[in-house]
Amino acid sequence: MNLVLKMGVCNIMSAPVYIIVLLSAFFIAYLSMPGVIKIAYRIGAIDQPDQRKVHSAKMPRLGGMSIFLAFIFSMIILQKYSGPYLGIILGASIVFLVGLLDDIFQLSAGVKLLGQSLAAAVAIYFGVMVHFVTNPFDGLMALGYFSIPLTFLWIVGISNAINLIDGLDGLAAGVSAIAAVTMGVVSLLQGQVEVALVAFLLLASILGFLPYNFNPARTFMGDCGSNLLGFILGCLAILGTAKSATLISLLLPIVILGIPIFDTFFAIIRRINKRTPIFKPDKDHLHHCLLAMGMSHRNCVLVIYGISGFFGLVAITFSFITSPKASLLLGLLLILVVLGASKIGMFSGSSARMARQVIEPNPSAKISEHI
């Protein structure tokens, strides 16, 4: 694997075209944003202030278009449009278009789910698929025909999980960027050089958008952006470990995407405990809880960046250690996450009233609820 890693890194770093395309992805996203903002106002993709939101002025919510254009253009230039990568391009296009319509016309949850399902089906058709799961008795178990439904649930779930954490300026974009760079590094360590390159392309596209989205934001990414990032990250997580059948490798995507996955999982548990509908919005997600503790909008985002970065470092570390040691560390990490979530009120929902009191004075923040 060391030989594959060295060859992969050498190919990427010695080929100027790759570096040029990565820089192009960044600048396409960055330079297209002023035009995207104008388009958002023209077509009505505007986030209107109301009693549920904190921002006091109209805010364009079409920033995901710049990420989409940068990523797709870069993929085409590098001729990554065959096999599973064609599935990613087509599926991403479907997710983006449905999200765009939602940002303009406010589609129903059923229509949005239909779009995500179609995108996941396209990705699966072109080869993006989970083939193994962990088995408590002998480590791994081939899924066979169950590969399709499990892959489907993973892609749709991650798409919605990224959408769910899109609640503060720069939060979803920053967490996605950290996940993308982590996937790139881990994929290199797994010998998946092409997957690493695509992950770095996504990172460059996000970084071009982030200056416009970080607090105080000049634009939001909208559903066309958050669902797009979730879809691509979900697919890359599968491709990055497709050739590895080790137990730890199969768990790495869960660690890398720890913030959106655990936040979604805790939201489900919390709503079950409170006997409220699972899809009913609340204000007890991680960012709400941190705001309730008195953190400023920007500090809250930076803290979550730090947590996400920690998860990324753990995932990379897992690539260098044996399965028994990694399993022990993973268990300790899970205990730490559960204890931390319980302490700040993510299970009980005790932060909702406090969060509202803390965040109301901040007019530049965006507290949106997606599920």
UniProtKB/TrEMBL annotation:
Write out the coiled-coil annotation as residue ranges: none
Q: Which PROSITE patterns is this protein grouped with?
A: MRAY_2 (PS01348)
CC annotations in GO: plasma membrane
Q: What is its main location?
A: membrane
Transmembrane residues, as ranges? 15-41, 62-78, 84-101, 113-133, 139-158, 170-189, 195-212, 224-242, 248-269, 300-321, 327-346
Cofactor(s) named in the record: Mg(2+)
Q: Where does Mg(2+) bind?
A: 163, 223
Membrane topology listed for this record:
Multi-pass membrane protein
Q: What are the subcellular locations of this protein? A: Cell membrane
Q: Which UniProt keywords apply?
A: Cell membrane, Magnesium, Membrane, Metal-binding, Transferase, Transmembrane, Transmembrane helix
GO MF term set: metal ion binding; phosphotransferase activity, for other substituted phosphate groups
What protein is this chain from? Answer: Glycosyl transferase, family 4
